[in-house]
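2024-03-11 09:14:02 INFO queue: dequeued item Molybdenum cofactor guanylyltransferase, len=206
2024-03-11 09:14:02 INFO validating residues
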Amino acid sequence: MIGVLILAGGEGRRMGGQDKGWCVRNNKAFIEVVLQQIQRQAERVTQTVTIVISANRNLSDYSNLGPPVVSDIRPGYCGPLAGIEAVMNEPSLSHINRWITWPVDSLNIPDHYLLHMLALESEVSFISQHRRAHYAHLSISKELKNSLSSYLDSKRNSIKGWLQSISHSGGEVHEVDISSYMSITNYNHFDTVNEHREMENNLMLR
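2024-03-11 09:14:37 INFO prediction written
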């Protein structure tokens, strides 16, 4: 069984502290754009795909979108790895053998992203494009759950650092170059977003 985890649980520091999932571009919230892309790509996958949202704020709003919502089990904001750890430890999701991650601020992703990530059988893989590594785009075997928790227990939360620790201990870490496909676009700075939710309008800023 395959799980696709939308990473929407961060502090949004580079977005002025906003919940990035509810920032708006071209009249659509980031989370809605990403969710639609995943659903479209999942239709091409022969295996059953379960979509999950990692979130730590606005939980009822995320829940209204349909997929299950899982919050970090560690206090504070410990980064994307904490969100991955939480879903790997969620009893109702124990049947998921492999997790594919999709950051909520990655609004433009190659159409065959899921197919590429699912074709890999190494313990963990990440993608790169034009010599730039996208460490938050991962394909992870559930067998790495203990490794992930141990790394976080050591008060480290860097995805790159975790991948290096796996490699140094003899694990399989695979880099997938997708430079020949559409460029990934990450909207993770305040000034890259055209529109924002505003609290006084009861919809926009969160």
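2024-03-11 09:14:37 INFO annotate: The chain has six helices and eleven strands.
2024-03-11 09:14:38 INFO item closed
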